[in-house]
Amino acid sequence: MSINIVDLVKNYVPQDLIAKAGSFLNESEGNVSNAVSGIIPAVLGLFASKASSSEQGAAEVLDTAKGFSNSGVLNSADTLFGNADLLSKGSSLFKGLLGDKTNSIIDSIANFAGIKSSSSGSLISMVVPLVLGLLGKHATDNNLNASAFSSFMGSQKSNILSALPSGLGSLGTVLGLSSIRDGVQQTVSNVQETAAPAYNYARETAQNAGGGAKWLLPLLLLAVIALALWYFLGKGCNNNTATSTGADTTAVAPTDTLTTVPQTPPAPAVKTLAEVTLPNGTKLQAYPGGIEDQLIQFIQSDEYKNATDSTLKEKWFNFDDLNFEFGTTKLTDSSKRQLDNIAAILKAFPDVKIKVGGYTDKKGDDAANLKLSDGRAKAVQAALKAAGVGAQVPQAEGYGETLAKVDENAPDEARAADRRTSVRLLKK
C-alpha cells in the first residue's frame, strides 16, 4: 500500500489538539483547522525539498527527525503548547530553512486562514516538531538510511503539492515544489501538441468520406485519446530517458518515437567506505577520495613540506560526511565517524596543525549567517579537542556567506555547495 506522508501527519493532529490550539491562541477552531491544513504540507514541503536535494541534506533532516522522534513528541502532542523548548526549536528550524521568506509564509497562512500572524507562527512552531517526529519514526520503523530517506521524501512531493489548499498554491515555488506542477503542465501541453494534428486529420477524414462514413470519427477520436494516454502515462509520467551529458550535442532523435524504448539512466554511484591505514598502524573507515584521503596524501606530499602558511591559506579540504541539525551548531550523530577519523589522522601526524572554517549560503540574514558559521566551526574545534587533539586545532573561524557564489533564490540543491565546513593546514 502506498504511503501518503501528509495523511500520516494529519493523524497526529486530531481535532481536540486543534481545539486546544484555538483556545490557547484565542482563535476560532475552524480558522485554526484551516491554517493547519496549509501548514502541514508547507512544512513537509520544506523538509522534502531539503532531504531530496542531496544525500547531505537527507542526512541532516534524518538525524534531526530521529532526535525529535526520540524525544517522545508523538506521545505528547496534546501538551505541545506547554513545551516552550520544542516550540522554540520548531520556530528556529522553520526560519533556518526559509530565511528572509519566513515572515511572508507566516503572513500568507494567516491571511488564508483568517488568523493573526502571531498565531500562524505559533501553529507552525507546533507542527514542525510533529512532522519531524513522524518522519523520524517512519525512518526508524523502516530502517531507512540517508539515501533511502532522500528517495522517500522525493517520492512524496506530489502528495505534498496536491495537499496545499488552493489559496496557498503559490507557496509551491517557495517550498521548492513548483517543478512538479511545471512538469505536469508541460506534459499536458505536450499531449495537446501531439494529439492536435491527429485530431484534425481524423475530422478531415470523416468529413471527406461523406455522410456514410461519419461513423469513423468516433473511432478515430478513440485512437487520438489512446495516443494521448500513451504519451501522458508512458512518456510524460514515466520518462526515464537518460539526461544528456553534453558530450555529444549532434545526436539525431529516432524517427519512430512510438516504438522507441525509454532508456533507464544508470543508478547514481553509491559511496562505499573503505579501510585506510595510517602510518602509525591505525585503521580508518573512510570514503575513497574523501577528506581523509585528501588530507593524508597532502600531508605526505612535497607540496605541503615546501608550503608556507601564506600559500596554505587557499588550500581547504571540505568535510563530506559532517552535518549539523537545522539552524543550530549541534553536530549530528552521523558526524562522529568523520570527526574521529580527523582526530586519528592528527594523532598519526602530531606535528600537523589545522584551522576549521565554517561557511553558509546566501539565504537569510548576513549577520546571523556569520554567527552560525562561526559557531559551527568552533563546534568542530570543540569536538576535536574532546577527542584529544585540541592543541593541533588552535583556530576556528566562520566566514558566513562572504564566499558564497550561488544566488539566494536558487534551488536548495544548488545552494548546498556553499554550505560547508572545511579545514586547512597551518604552518606557524
TrEMBL record:
Its main location: membrane. Residues 311-428 form the OmpA-like domain. It comes from the Bacteria. Keywords: Cell outer membrane, Membrane, Transmembrane, Transmembrane helix. It holds the Pfam family DUF937. The chain crosses the membrane at residues 215-233. The keyword Transmembrane helix applies. This is OmpA family protein.
